[in-house]
Amino acid sequence: MLQEKKQYQEIGRDLRQKIQSGHYPQGTRLPPERNIAETYGVSRTIVREALLMLELEKTVDIRQGSGVYVVRIPGIEAEEAASFSDSEIGPFELLQARQLIESNIAAFAAKMATKGDIENLRRTLEQEQRDITTNARHGNSDKRFHELIATATQNEMLLETVKSVWQRQESSALWQQLHSHIDTTALRLRWLADHQNILAALRRRDVMGCYQYMWQHLENVKNTLMEISDADAPEFDGYLFESVPIFQGKLV
Predict the structure, then answer these.
(1) What is the mean pLDDT of residues 227-240?
(2) Which of 211, 238, 249 is nearest to 104 (CA)?
(3) What fold does the segment set 7-84 form as a domain?
(4) Packing angle of the helix pair 156-170, 141-151 (nearest 10 deg)
(5) pLDDT at 3 (0 to 100)
(6) Looking at residues 6-28, what average pLDDT do you find?
(7) What is the pLDDT of residue 152?
(8) 3: three-class secondary structure by DSSP
(9) pLDDT of 85 over the 80 cut
(10) pLDDT in tens, 86-132
(11) How many CB atoms neighbour CB 192 within 10 A?
(12) Mind spelling out the 3-state secondary structure of 85-112?
């Protein structure tokens, strides 16, 4: 069993070494994710992040409905590039952190939000809807919505925490590569609907509702990544995050 910290990087390096040594020649298909996961004793989530790392290096190609293929034999420069990103946090770990942090922040915001906060959130959702309608891809209304929820707590430290997590997410090459596969109009509309549910609960001062809607919003993102990752499905897109229920109880 590999160490808990940065498991995907360790597996990615090991797979790269096997490719370099000829164990997996160029043009061959890597074993299925489940087999790799069993070999290393980890979840498919970790394997997915390892393969994503190799895809970013252009060592492998994840082909829709077919599998993962070796397209290039990496040299020393690939190892140097990988070591440059040793501090990279996996996309699933980032999403899990957001779910834990932002759900509790949303619940607290239900108690603390002012009329001005609610109005700013309403305007931001209107902008998000316009961005979707015009197919604008470079807007930040999604990020702004989540930051405004934190602003509504009237706690500067909570706002800085959310900003820090989002900054880490935006600077993650793994996350950006992953997100490019799910940035569709249909899904953007779904996330907008989730945001509208959160705002409606906030207006009602519904503490538990805010918590649950924010939790479910990020769970929906996670579940979507699962749905498009079934290798046997025609819409297979090569990415898998296993659902890990963290908290199912009630706030006290």
Answers:
(1) 50
(2) 211
(3) Arc Repressor Mutant, subunit A (1.10.10)
(4) 160
(5) 46
(6) 92
(7) 98
(8) coil
(9) no
(10) 567 777 788 889 999 999 999 999 999 999 999 999 999 999 999 99
(11) 18
(12) CCCCCCHHHHHHHHHHHHHHHHHHHHHH
* Top-level class of domain 91-227: mainly alpha
DSSP 57: T
How many CB atoms are located within 10 Å of the residue 186 CB? 9
Tokens of 160: 């800085």
DSSP string of 199-242, one letter each residue:
HHHHHTT-HHHHHHHHHHHHHHHHHHHHHTT-TTSTT--S----
246: which 2 tokens? 């963290």
Reduced to 3 states, what is the DSSP secondary structure of residue 44? Answer: helix
Rounded to whole angstroms, the Cα distance separating 223 from 203 reads 27
Q: For the chain, which residues make up each domain, given as ranges? A: 7-84, 91-227
pLDDT band at 178 (very low <50, low <70, confident <90, very high): confident
Pick from 179, 122, 173: nearest CA to 148: 122
- Residues with Cβ < 8 Å from 81, sequence gap 6 or more? 57
Spatial neighbors of 245 by CB under 8 A, at least 6 apart, are none
DSSP code per residue over 127-171: HHHHHHHTT-SS--HHHHHHHHHHHTTT-HHHHHHHHHHHHHHHT
Nearest in space to 239 (alpha carbons), one of 1, 8, 23: 8
